[in-house]
Design a protein that fits this description.
Length: about 375
């Protein structure tokens, strides 16, 4: 398929710039491509749509204060966005400057400490932190929360609370697993009281999640790599759920990507690894039965993923409907609950989309 098959026009006014007053107050569109239906609702309706014996999977990563400002010791302002912490004194980062720094360049950040560029890996610079303090401690003291590029204000104390999930635990993400932002303690309690089990995975979301696909043929796109961990307890709960006829719902594309990455051998395995899995229409899902997710960017890999899951036609209809009904989009926006489409129907729709020149966009 072509990248333009996943393009759509979104009025700027529909991009949510701030979180809703209440985490659980968002709208939710139930997208059932199996039965060709769209249903308006509220996020709180999730407790009605899931059944006793079902399982939800949450991504418990926590966003680090990854954005830093400084200057080269030789002169020139620099903006640094930490992509991944390697160890206590080393990190990979995106560096924005008038001229890309060379290996050996030293940069003073936040007027507090120095880093040295020790290598370059494609678009990422490997930085050595020249301080006795660990990288994560320095980021907490001097860094800023890295809000997505489509949010136009600087991070505030409200963002520092609301751009983290209530169940976040393991520091390492550059972006929040935004589907999880809707959940509060009351909703989690209500799900458990209904008999819906809760399990966790960790996937540290990278900045690449916001990057559009820039090649025409999506098969030529190179995915960014992210670290993930699947606990054995989560594998056991998934096995038990499926054995008893329950459904597994991934809360967010990051939870889904972690699970599907860990099941590439054919069976789900516990452990830690890196993933650059690129899920496009035609992919056969091995673990996840339902997906709860926000609305995604045009031409993004995540829009391709949800099209693979729910069906190209169902997602096109859902996004057109959401825009017409003025749903709020992206990280602080509203949500969808997607039912998994059969692989046979997704492949048939994909072939139709490829051959039908009149249907070249999602919405």
């Amino acid at each position: 398929m072509r990248t333009q098959d996943f393009d759509f026009y979104l009025p700027t006014a529909l991009i949510a710039q701030h979180p809703s007053a209440d985490r659980a107050a968002s709208r939710m569109l139930h997208v059932d491509g199996v039965n060709n239906s769209l249903s308006d609702g509220m996020f709180s309706d999730l407790t009605k749509l899931l059944n006793s014996g079902d399982l939800i999977i949450l991504n418990d990563t926590r966003v680090i204060k990854a954005r830093l400002f400084g200057h080269k010791l030789s002169g020139g302002n620099v903006e640094v966005l930490i992509e991944r912490v390697i160890d206590e004194h080393t990190a990979y980062a995106h560096v924005r400057a008038s001229r890309a720094p060379k290996v050996g360049t030293q940069i003073k950040l936040a007027d507090a400490f120095d880093v040295e560029v020790i290598a370059r890996h494609d678009d990422l610079f490997e930085l050595r932190f020249l301080s006795d303090s660990p990288v994560l401690d320095l980021l907490e003291l001097y860094g800023a929360l890295p809000l997505p590029p489509y949010i136009t204000h600087e991070a505030t104390s409200i963002d520092e609370e609301r751009y983290q999930t209530v169940f976040s635990k393991h520091l390492g993400a550059v972006a929040a697993p935004t589907a999880g932002l809707h959940f509060n303690a009351a909703i989690l309690d209500a799900l458990e009281q209904k008999g819906v089990a809760i399990a966790y995975v960790t996937l540290h979301v990278g900045a690449g999640t916001f990057q559009p696909v820039r090649v025409d043929d999506i098969e030529q796109h190179k995915m960014h790599s992210e670290l993930y961990h699947i606990p054995q307890a989560t594998v056991d709960m998934i096995t038990k759920t499926k054995l008893h006829g329950g459904k597994v719902t991934a809360i967010g594309t990051t939870a889904l990507r972690a699970l599907e990455s860990a099941a590439q051998s054919g069976s789900l395995s516990a452990g830690s690894s890196e993933t650059s899995i690129f899920i496009t229409p035609g992919y056969e899902f091995k673990v996840v039965d339902r997906l709860f997710t926000n609305f995604h960017l045009p031409k993004s890999t995540l829009l391709m993923l949800v099209s693979a899951f729910a069906g190209v036609s169902a997602i096109r209809q859902a996004y057109a409907y959401a825009i017409a009904e003025q749903y709020r989009f992206f990280s602080y926006g509203d949500a969808m609950l997607l039912e998994k489409q059969s692989i046979e129907k997704v492949i048939a729709e994909t072939n139709t989309a490829i051959n039908d020149g009149t249907k070249t966009s999602v919405a």
